[in-house]
Amino acid sequence: MKIWIINHSSIPPSMGGLVRHYYLSKYLQKNGHGIKIFTSGIIHNTEICMVPSGKLFYEENIEGVPYVFVKGIKYKSNGLKRILNILEFPFRVFQSIRWFEKPDIIYTSSPDIIGAWFAIILAKRIKVRCVLEIRDLYPETLIKILGWSRKNPVAMVISMIETWIYKKADTIVFTMEGGLDYIKKNKPYKNIDFSKIHHLNNGIDLEERVENLKRFRVDDEDLNDDKINIIYAGSIRRANNMDRLVKCAELLLEHSEIRFLIYGSGTDLENLKAYCKTKGIDNIKFKGFVDKKYLPFILSKGYLNIMNYSPNFVTEYGCSQNKLFEYMASGKPILSNIKMNYDLIERYKCGISDSIKDAEDYKDAVLNFVNMDKETYEKMCANCLEAVQLYDYKILAEKLEEILQDCMSK
């Protein structure tokens, strides 16, 4: 099959982008399929512009995968220019495609629902099948996290577009396991053919991880002493509810053997650092953004990995975060501060998911791991390593291949 992947944020892993499409493409190519990933030429959270001045697009094979970067408005933050860049993306793709051979199938991805809407229209225009991938539930996520009313005009418009793309896509692939439940529960989708609904988790490239663990190490004394390192790796924003973890660390100051290492960046980082400085919380270290290739080594030096969410996080239909599989592959237990449906941590007994209400609860949960008997702890470690084998991108790409072939045959 000749497959076009169209998504605004599918930039290469080495540039900090959405890794899912890169790894799926890598293994689909090994199985003989042709891939082109159409994505924005403005690399989010960087100063990088991939498209030369005066050009509409720039094509490059990066780490074995062909990318087509399309021209877009430059921006530096999550403001108006970024919104315009996202809105402009579909039209730039449309202008660019005449230079490329027609695909057999288009694979598009939300939450960029404008891009997904366009990709479905494009597929129908050139008479090819279109697979819609859903990575986030919108406007459901905005309603939960931001407290929007369902009658909010923006939420209503997003809902209308969402309903349209769900009905018009030939096949739908949810990253969260409860996607079919979401479709069945919401009245606007009641006429959708349930047989076209599929589930394909995020995952990890285990082959690459083994290589990265050997090659990319971090010279950091905090990773090499005898402290019990509690590690969080990910974004530090409102949705991640990191202030509760920081206050947990504050309550554990008397436990000098415990240390929290926070890897990542985001809008809440400076406020949290200032709070720790004011309160004298010295058992938590903010390590900043780290390239993904260093994570295997960093996580190998930890004792416990943290999944941290806002209490308003959408949990009813499950979740599939990339870092969950990085955590599993480290062979160290996982503590999640919320319970959710379709919970892989509990399913495979890789740690504990608990509805942590406050910093005191968090402290007790962390101490539960610290004081855990060796046999129970080591069993959780083994469970992580066993479970993650199911989410190797090599296996996930084979599942996607079956989904695409099924879509083509209809």
Your description of this structure?
This protein is of the alpha/beta class. 40% of the residues lie in helices and 17% in strands. The protein has an eight-stranded mixed beta sheet with strand order 3-4-2-1-5-6-7-8, with helices on both faces. A six-stranded parallel beta sheet has the order 11-10-9-12-13-14, sandwiched between helices. Helix 1 packs across helix 15 and helix 8 (242-251) crosses helix 13.
Keywords:
about 400 residues; alpha/beta; 14 strands; about 15% strand; globular
In short:
The chain is α/β, with parallel strands linked by helices and 410 residues long.
Q: What is the 3D form?
A: globular
Note the run of SSEs as H and E. Answer: EHEEEHEHEHHEHEHEHEHEHEHEHEHHH
Q: How many helices does DSSP assign? A: 15
- The stretches of 5 or more residues where confidence is low (pLDDT under 50) are none
State the total count of DSSP E strands: 14
Class by SSE composition: alpha/beta
Cα-to-Cα separation, first versus last residue: 15 Å
**Strand order, sheet with most strands:** 3-4-2-1-5-6-7-8
Strand count, sense and barrel status of the largest sheet are:
8 strands, mixed
Rg calc: 22 Å
Report the β-strand fraction as a percent range: 15-25%
| Mean pLDDT reading | 92
Helix content: 40-55%
Q: What is the secondary structure topology, with strand pairs?
A:
Layout: E1 2-6, H1 19-30, E2 34-40, E3 57-62, E4 65-70, H2 80-96, E5 105-110, H3 113-126, E6 129-134, H4 140-146, H5 153-168, E7 171-174, H6 179-185, E8 197-199, H7 206-215, E9 228-233, H8 242-251, E10 258-263, H9 269-279, E11 284-288, H10 295-300, E12 304-307, H11 322-330, E13 334-336, H12 344-347, E14 351-353, H13 359-370, H14 374-387, H15 393-409
Parallel strand pairs: 1-2, 1-5, 2-4, 5-6, 6-7, 7-8, 9-10, 9-12, 10-11, 12-13, 13-14
Antiparallel strand pairs: 3-4
Helix pairs in contact: 1-15, 2-3, 3-5, 8-13, 11-14
